[in-house]
């Protein structure tokens, strides 16, 4: 079975039958369940909460997590394809799934105790519990080492004080994976539960981007977190950065999905839009834009596949994830601009997906490491000379 859609080089020939099946089922689910409601949710600034149980039923939550704890145990290419299909619809939908899987399920699986895994992973993969990831602060985004959120050791646990900003799922989360500095200056990870005294997650409003996604602030006012909620198997920034590597990988696949969506919309529109007695697709300048989009999307698909293969065979370097995040988000951003141009005035209308994707990508371009930060990571890797010290 081959999925109809943009695959100019037949890259799907390299997918397994299981990967193609999951992609096909995800595409059908998105078309049936999410596409009809996403524009309204975006306009109203709401997240489709009623879909969370269906996400779990489809296996989206922890699709590449260990099966012994309720995860799907599937390949990283499969996970990437799910992200691609979800973001063909909306970046906010993919963000929800990315956070749950890469930033909550992953750190508990990779850094947690056996007790933490048994308690939380089945709840998270089933959608019974929702999680969020607390790293970014108001004054410390690209420089997480400067974080001010702190954890003071007390009898039986820690007292956490500080705040986090721009946290996806924060206001609807049952738990937060929170990174804070202990008194010796070491970054540690904690599972903070929503009903812990002194913890609040106010909703951040007035966004012009990712409007169909919950974005929050996390506030910690002497929040007591018991010792058993400390992630025991990691210390330092390698903990949160390891999580971000997982999330950035999914973003690299997802944003190509957004690029595919605006390309397909533009191709269709250009064939139907008549100007000067012929479709605008017949004009050289429009064709040039479409070819550029096709060209860059195809390269992005190839990068995504190879990085996914490397991840599956455990040869992945984190710098390769910087490459996929940096390139594919940029490609999606540029495709959105060209699609807006091709659609003319209609490009700003909610009848078409162009402006929604364009505004979403502006957030994705910044979060999980800015374009410039990933440039510096790659520059350091290829020259051996760090330019950020």
How does this structure look, described?
The protein has about 400 residues and is α+β, with helices and mostly antiparallel strands. Helix content is about 50%, strand content about 15%. The chain has ten helices and nine strands. Strands 1, 2, 3, 4, 5, 6 and 7 form a seven-stranded mixed sheet that branches. A hairpin with a 2-residue loop joins strand 8 and strand 9. The longest helix has about 35 residues. The radius of gyration is 21 Å and the shape is globular. It starts with 16 loop residues before the first helix and ends in a 6-residue tail after the last helix.
Spell out the key features of this protein.
single chain; 389 residues; alpha+beta; 7-stranded mixed sheet; two-stranded antiparallel sheet; 10 helices; 9 strands; globular
């Amino acid at each position: 079975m081959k999925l109809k859609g943009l695959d100019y080089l037949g890259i799907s020939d390299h997918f397994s039958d299981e990967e193609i099946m999951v992609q096909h089922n995800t595409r059908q689910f998105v078309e049936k369940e999410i596409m009809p409601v996403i524009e309204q949710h975006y306009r109203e600034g709401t997240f489709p909460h009623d879909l969370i149980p269906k996400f779990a039923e489809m296996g989206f939550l922890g699709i590449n997590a260990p099966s012994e704890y309720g995860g799907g145990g599937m390949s990283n290419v499969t996970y990437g394809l799910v992200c691609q299909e979800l973001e063909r619809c909306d970046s906010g939908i993919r963000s929800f799934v990315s956070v749950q899987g890469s930033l909550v399920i992953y750190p508990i699986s990779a850094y947690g105790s056996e007790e933490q895994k048994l308690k939380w992973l089945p709840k998270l993969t089933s959608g019974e519990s929702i999680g969020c990831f607390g790293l970014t602060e108001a004054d410390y985004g690209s420089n997480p080492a400067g974080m001010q959120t702190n954890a003071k050791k007390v009898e039986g646990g820690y007292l956490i004080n500080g705040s986090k900003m721009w946290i996806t799922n924060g206001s609807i989360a049952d738990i937060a994976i929170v990174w804070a500095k202990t008194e010796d200056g070491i970054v540690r990870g904690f599972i903070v539960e929503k009903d812990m005294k002194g913890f609040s997650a106010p909703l951040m409003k007035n966004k012009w981007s990712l409007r169909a996604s919950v974005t929050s602030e996390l506030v910690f006012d002497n929040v007591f977190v018991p010792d058993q909620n400390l992630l025991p198997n990691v210390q330092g920034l390698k903990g949160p950065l390891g999580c971000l590597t997982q999330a950035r990988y999914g973003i690299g696949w997802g944003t190509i999905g957004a690029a595919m969506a605006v390309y397909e919309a533009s191709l269709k529109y250009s064939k139907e839009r008549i100007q000067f007695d012929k479709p605008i697709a017949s004009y050289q300048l429009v064709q040039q834009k479409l070819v550029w989009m096709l060209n860059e999307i195809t390269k992005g698909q190839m990068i995504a596949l190879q990085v996914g293969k490397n991840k599956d065979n455990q040869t992945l370097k984190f710098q390769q994830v910087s490459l996929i995040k940096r390139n594919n988000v940029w490609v999606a951003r540029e495709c959105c601009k060209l699609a807006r141009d091709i659609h003319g005035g209609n490009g700003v209308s909610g009848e078409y997906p162009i402006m929604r994707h364009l505004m979403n990508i502006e957030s994705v371009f910044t979060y999980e490491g800015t374009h410039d930060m990933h440039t510096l990571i790659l520059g350091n890797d290829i020259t051996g000379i760090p330019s950020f010290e």
